[in-house]
Design goal:
The protein has helices spanning 3-27, 29-46, 55-60. With 62 residues, it is an all-alpha fold. The chain has a domain at 3-44.
Length: 62
């Protein structure tokens, strides 16, 4: 096989691999966003200040 044909096959193979990665990312985008929001909610519940509930009461008296 000539060098040109090998180079073309490598370029085509790299293009197909890149396209497969892009398709996986686009296809799994919803799952990634759901996972991120779930993680963010868990962190916010875990590291909440115990005084966050009192902020609402202060707004009532202003």
């Amino acid at each position: 096989m000539s060098k040109t044909a090998r180079l073309v096959l490598k370029i085509v193979g790299a293009s197909l691999a890149f396209a497969a990665c892009v398709c996986l990312i686009i296809g799994g985008w919803h799952d990634l966003s759901v996972g991120y929001s779930g993680l963010r909610n868990r962190w916010s519940r875990k590291f909440n200040s115990e005084y966050d509930d009192y902020d609402d009461e202060e707004e009532l008296f202003q």
